């Protein structure tokens, strides 16, 4: 029986979870509950627990700090996040901290939590089976190994490996040469899945995260990445366009990642790709799944977020660097995307060590 604890500052959420779900039919028993992270740690000192369901926003000690403390003191305990947020960048930060999975609280009202429990217990069983069947000796993981892996992961985000077989083979061989330990490989897969979802709206996010948890050997990894590549290829509609068009659109996407100023326009990118504006517009939307203006806007807002968090520059200067000539228009667009005005967003994140959507060092 899996011993579980629920940590949430909302009394009725805790009691609702405890009383309405058929925990024991999934092999789970709720043995403790707490209204904040500090209380949870106090209970853990006396109450053995295998699994924690925790909210993130709580007084006294929040869920992020609780996760860090549990990772340091009780590394064998698995953690599932309870959240109201469905923003994938936000969820990604919890996965980087080692969360097994997450549950959106609105599912409680919709009565969909049984499927979530089934997914979570499947992951726990898969991880346990992997530990029994394929224990690998733990090699020492050096800072130089981490730096090499971080640099290597940037290559996967360029998407050329989806189109070109030789690039796919090269990246697979390189990752197997770096050979991160299996827990690190799981985080690599989580990161890749989340980033692909952000870039092209992959879909079936839970399914792919669940599949990645069942990877226990490098043979499993090879099967996983072949299937994952096929799914992305299908999403990019690779069969509908000749390879040279796909590569030109990927080139445009790569260029836009680092160039988001006002000079980057659809007409300019079409000319750069030597396509007519109308054909470039259609092929971009077909392949990426988003229109050019929509994709560019996302990149500009993302860049603005980073500058607001990492610098003390004036908001008007940030707006201009991110391609917005009108400061008021930038503020409206930023608020539509984030729910905050730029100044409010800067105040809300404060000195957070984990940047939404970013990849801090040593967190893969």
From TrEMBL:
Pfam families tied to this protein: HTH_18, Response_reg
Keyword Phosphoprotein: yes
Gene Ontology BP annotations: phosphorelay signal transduction system
PROSITE patterns for the chain: HTH_ARAC_FAMILY_1, HTH_ARAC_FAMILY_2, RESPONSE_REGULATORY
Positions of modified residues (4-aspartylphosphate): 55
Superkingdom field: Bacteria
Segments forming domain Response regulatory: 3-120
EC number: 3.5.1.44
Key words, A-Z: DNA-binding, Hydrolase, Phosphoprotein, Transcription, Transcription regulation
Residue stretches making up the HTH araC/xylS-type domain: 250-348
First-tier enzyme category under EC: hydrolase
GO molecular function list: DNA-binding transcription factor activity; protein-glutamine glutaminase activity; sequence-specific DNA binding
Keyword S-adenosyl-L-methionine: no
CDD domains membership: REC_YesN-like
Name of the protein: Protein-glutamate methylesterase/protein-glutamine glutaminase
Organism: Paenibacillus solanacearum
Phylogenetic classification of the source organism: Bacteria, Bacillati, Bacillota, Bacilli, Bacillales
